[in-house]
Amino acid sequence: MKYKNALYFLWKEISRFKKELFINFILIFSSIPLVAVTPFLIENLMQEITTINDGQGMKSALITALLILVIYSFTRFIWFLSDYQGDILKLLVKGSLREKLYLKVLKLPASYHKRKPSGELMARFTSDIDIVGEEALFFTSVFQAIAEFSVGCYVAFKLNTYLAIIFVCSLPVYLLCQKQFKPKMESMSLLEREANDNVVKSIEEGINSAIIIRLLEKTTYFYHLFQNKIRNWNNSMKNKSFYEKLYNSITMYIEEGLPIIILCIGAILSMRGLVDIPKLIAFFTFVGRLYVPVWNLAFLFTTTPAAFPSIDRIKTLLNQEEEKVRKGMPFPKEFTIDFHDVFFSYEGNNYILKNINLQISEGEKIAIVGSTGTGKSTLLLLLTELYKPQRGEILLNKLKLSQYDLSDLRRNIKYVESSPFIFNASIEENILLGEKVEKSTINKILEITQLTEFSESLNKNCLLLSSGQKQRVNLARTLLHPPKVLLLDEATSAMDSHTEELIFERLKEKEKDMAIILVSHRLSTITKADKIYFMANGTIVDSGSHIELYQKNESYRELFKKQYVKDAQNER
Questions:
Q1: Which residues cross the membrane (predicted)?
Q2: pTM (two decimals)
């Protein structure tokens, strides 16, 4: 059943490209008659050569030889086209699978990305898809082998029944070889894929953390860890390669050795008058081609199952439940958002947030403060519905968030993180992300985010900017279509206080009705809030203005002294 499901998946992916598949079939089957007629022409040539007694006989033999050469050349040309078309089909299947996986990954819920390392996903996109794509010719190759073998057997029996029977009796040797090697090659392939996944994960982690690793002075430590994973992969690859090469060598030995045995037996039969020399020579030149489809079938059914683990992993990813596209009510023009006894956990009953109660109104500026790990960022993400609370509810104008259109909700509640998504393109491309907007709109956004210095150089590569400038580009992208609720999660942490001050002034001036929720460890940031919620151990323990909290809450005062006073000194 496992093989059946894997082959069905493979066929579904291949059959998307009907035109290329049809061309491949035509090329494959057009060469079979040409191969089949060749041994009869060789037999005829041998007879003509052995009976040459005048110039006319020599001319006839030369014409036959020329015809054989033309057919052989044309057959080779068809094989070239077939191989080329086969490579095109492989590329199309790989590209299609990558497109499907890419779209799937973008649609997966945040909870999936939270528990799956990106290196594991990268392995699906690279090695697994390459392995599966290489099997794109499985079905055409099977049909080709069956057709070639059937036609070949017919030709063999037409040439000489005794020699054909000897050939058929040699086939169990192939089947025995295939039976012995198939299970071992499958298990070796699975171990190699697992070891390769670990290497890919380590590469991805190393690239993402290269600077931190150097700062920690742990380059040697991580290098040795990576070396161990490379060694494990090398060992598994050696084992896989050993069995593959051993299998190929044995089958090639059989393929090349059996025709010689048949030739020797044929010579004995010839001396007894059971086969003439022209037929024996024709059969000997053809029997090598007879073993090719047998070898191909044995090879396909031995090596193709090695791709099944990759197919399983791709299928598992494609079958993951996507975030549901939800239709519902539009986001209201005037709004109030209420958290009522909200509890949230990423896993099990280990709640990150506990008994959260707060209210956000239109145009209000709120700050959420607390020590690291108290759930501040998670609280913001709940508003975007990337995650949903296990207990309690979040209400928008006294209705559950789930009653509102999800796309419209996210257009109006936007989250801006501290480490922005910046890709290798210009400032303008990073802001617009393919959208067409008026120049006046861009200028307005540049003014709010203090990026007017780049108004005449928007084609500058965004990767060349400083961290603070990248944060401003990220904010500009968010404000291209201003939300009604802006969630700033340390989104200005890399900017200087003066720039941050100007941005907030412009936001108040241009977007008066926008509600802003801030998470920050910077004094200059939180004092801009109308109200501050103080969190500890995943719950809101107090709220009020900065002065009120400082006066009445000792824990807040201690946190302020540890974090915010130091920040204020750094700003000076």
A1: 21-42, 62-81, 163-181, 246-269, 281-308
A2: 0.77
